[in-house]
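Ticket #4471: structure export looks truncated?
Reporter: QA, pipeline team
Priority: medium

Steps to reproduce: submit the single chain below to the structure queue and open the exported record.
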Amino acid sequence: MARPSWTLSESSDMKFLEGRTVGIDLGTTYSAIAHLNDEGEPEVICNSDGRRITPSVVLFDEDKVVVGPSFERISVASPEQIVEAIKREMGNKDYHVVYQNKKLTPEFISALILKKMKQDAEAVIGPIANAVITVPYYFNDIRRKATQDAGRIAGLNVVDIINEPTAATLTYAWGQKVLGRTDLADEERTILVYDLGGGTFDVTVVRYTPTAFRVLATDGDVMLGGLDWSKRLADHLVQQFRQKYDLDPSSSPETMLTFQQEAEDAKRDLSEKGRVPISVYYEGKTLSVQLTRPEFERMTADLLQRTKDTTELVMQQAGVRAGTLDEVILVGGSTYMPVVEQMLREVTGHEPSRDLMPECAVAEGAAIHASILQARSGDTENIPEGVLQRLKNVKTRDVNSHSLGIKITDPSDRSRKINHIMIPKNTPVPHEVSQRFGTNTDGQQRIHVEILEGDATDPDACELIGDFRIFNLPPNLPKGSPISITYSYDASGRIHATARELTGNNEASAEIVRDGGLDEGEVSAAVDLLDQEYIIE
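Actual output as written to the record:
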């Protein structure tokens, strides 16, 4: 069973700058930005097109960058100019896009999206300084650091990174007029948040009272979302085209853009209609088909099954049986597919709620969380007096999103190494643990400690986030001589590890501050590049 854990974070060195504070849902396919309005309600701010969501698509034109271009604009551009689903590349050091002879990282491309939203929102509410940005619960530390860097490059003071299911839960509790209410009974409610977005998936069971939240269990997939449903349909259209004309549309990137757009439109239409017509073109040939909702559901059944398996696993880990939940909350635009509601109804024994707007709930929750942190910091500017005390009443604490361990020799098979988990995921932080181990051989002269992040037993399936060594151990140490390892995770997200050889009292340690991603110099250079050389439309 998953270890109970608090879900909101509180950074000990958090500082708010002068200016407005917002919450941002940086999504795979669409993004949104929100704030607490004058009535103390979370509100998504419309972009320059009057829409509450902005496509997370970047078009690199000859003389400017276009964020969220229309399909008409995309259709006349070269595929090499278009970047979509950059969220899936966050933290990937091997990914870059070359534009105007410069290599642009995923952090920089994401910053372009954030900068566009910031510009549009500032036209409505004035200068923006501070932001909370959301991430999937299952984002590892490197991806979280990359998201934070993207915000900084965009000119934002990122006061926190918050998990998307937590943000949605905040929106739900706030909308129920419960959050921060000390006059209400301290009654616990248990809800399931099913978040199926454009490119990522999370399912989380949360238990909360008016003043506190904790996660009972969570799981997800950062490479599963509505894009995969659309791709499955686009691949189906390619297969049908091959069979009819013996031509392969997938050999043309330009054609595949139109196939994918037609598939995306058809997927959305099938959420409202039982049948939709689709027409696609390639090399003067036309394929016209009538696609029914049952046909689409059959060709994507394995994708839905993956989310069902995860939902059942999380409920089992949380100790929650069908019919015992207080609410099932739908988040993410892909939950509009009717088959999702049907599946959740069967698995949870509860009618899924549409009280929240799936595309806006996460950004709204981020705005609430940002205001909670702002109220706690003592900066009450732009916070309505009527909700200030409610915000201060919410007690919050962070958790580690992935297990932290070290590489050791497997006691049952000394020929292999394993990841020995010392701080399981979902453990409240700050947290410290010490354990004893033994040297591997007689007369061992040094100890190598490798710090891992991940839940797998195989070290190669985990992320190596740091390492250190102790040299000059006492001579003639017998095999199994005691070594004490202390592992800690502080409230600011810093990981500390210390090893002490107890016979000679030798010690070495390491501090890891979100290792990986861009360093301070690279972030500063990216800020300058974005400010000086790019016009964002």
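Status: closed, not a bug. The export was complete when the record was re-opened. Leaving a note from the reviewer for reference: Residues 13 and 329 are 33 Å apart (CA to CA).
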